[in-house]
Amino acid sequence: MFFLSTIRMSFSNLRANAMRTFLTMLGVIIGITSIIALLAIGQGVTDSVIDQLAGLGGNRATVSISDNTVKKGFTEGELAQFAALEGVEGVAPILTSNRVITLLPEQTNSKFDSAHSSGRRVMGVNDFYFSTYTKNAGMLYGRSISADDVHFRTNVCVLGYELWQKLYGNYSPIGETILVQNTPCTIIGVMNQLVGIDVSGNNAIIVPYTTASQALEMGLPGSFDVVIGSSRNSDEVIESIKNLCAKLLGSGSNREMYSVVNQEEILDMVLTITDLVLGMLAGIAVIALVVGGIGIMNMMLVTVSERTAEIGLRKALGARPGVILLQFLIEAIIISLFGGIIGVALGFGASYVASMLIGYTFKFNPLIAMLALLFSLAVGAIFGLLPARRAAKMNPIEALRSS
Amino acid sequence: MQATHLLDLQNVTKTYHMGDVEFPVLHGITFSVDAGEFVSVLGPSGSGKSTLMNIIGCLDVADDGTYTIGRRAVTGLSERDMAKLRNRDIGFVFQSFQLLPRISALENVMLPLIYAKVPRKQRIARAMAELARVGLADKADNLPRQLSGGQQQRVAIARALVTRPRIILADEPTGALDRTTGAQIMDIFRALNEEGITIVMITHDHKVASYASRVVHILDGRIYSAEEYAALESAEGGT
User: What ipTM goes with this model?
Assistant: First the structure.
């Protein structure tokens, strides 16, 4: 009850100097807004990166030959050895190159001028690619490339969604033949549109990598991805992959001739960097908040000296020092807490706008909001304490005389 | 054994220090007020009357001597207890009214009751009653600047009365008012005293002092009764 009348009193005092109050509050608003926005945007981006990587299924490692004078690439048989390692779910070699493609003249239904050729991205993959890299997007028409297609180097191809739209509009091209370079490939399927990080397949003609190596002269895959089962200790699996690399590269090989990069490591590295950047920015935001706090202290000191006579009178009327202290402390806390509330709203607003622009999922984190409010409350209490103590310690006789 | 005085100062001294220099202000003041009295403390500026008022009002403490209100010794109390005493036992009326400018007359009168932790409904009722007592019930919602000087001082008197203190302590209550208005304020004090309220008034003005039922003089930090003061003046006049 007493508290209530003190708060009411504080509000009327702050309203009486509305402009000054608002400008002082602005410091806290800027500080809290930037902290919230940074944390929310940072968390949103990090979450979506983790989601996308995790969505690929299990942990991935990239194996590549660094020194191609030792070995040009891995053969189908060698890749099979990697795939057979304990803990490895599968290997995914991807060969990518641009090739001239031509639609055959009898395909009168195509939007394409039959005589016309164009350079397109050709990707050589195996069956494993479709189950992992496409996030099981599935096929719009037909089927995907099978293990047999890979093994027997069949001349078949799957079209990416966007490329299919460009070449065929909206009709099914299953069974038709495309000339890739000079190799006729039968279209066996069209993929659904890929979403996520790796969407390179949307605009490509996808063939078995063995076909790509041989008929399309794209060479052996010098690097490939390994998907490690999530139940496995990935360090052990990585170690066995490295051992196999060493064995395949021959007795004279050393660790600089090949590399095995665990995606967990890459993720850790990315997260470390984002944490560092966010930490630095948050540090700057905290500095802004401290500056806001100093603004509060400054304003409260002015207020206390302006209201010396009032303080004297209140003391004469029986206000205990603690009551005076509380009154000025509450005023400081009201400024900072309101600044905090506005800052939290603006910060999450900024994060929402950023989520639309950057394309991550906006999340309201009540913990961050609570912490920010507690933080702003603490700023008000800490920076309001000195002026409030000064008011509480005032000698009522001298204070009364000041009017 | 004589009845206990409401206010009782025995041998109160006060000295101010400015660096190494001492300024003795009160030299052993012995002075008492009984319940229901209206006493004027009359003295010129520099006589120590403001310091005496501060001590009586529990805003300052004596260096030496004893001061009791009722049976309660004021000397040696903590700042907290002094504040409580001021709130409960003393109603101040100042020369310059000392109303808070941004709140209404009613809220000004309610102010001491906030510190007495009286619930809001009671605060409003009691403050309204005191405003009615000084004839300003219709000005309750006015801000101080919307009131004349005399009205402002009446609000201040209502504020002094609202906690039902043992004493009203008035410091030059007419000092900022013209003579007619000042006389009206003094009439209010006299009427309050007739209702049994104890009043101690500090002034330098003989005319104002004469409204009181008893006048004591203060000069160079010493108290003289009216008779002693007259003797002193005639002695000085004689030399």
Answer: 0.92
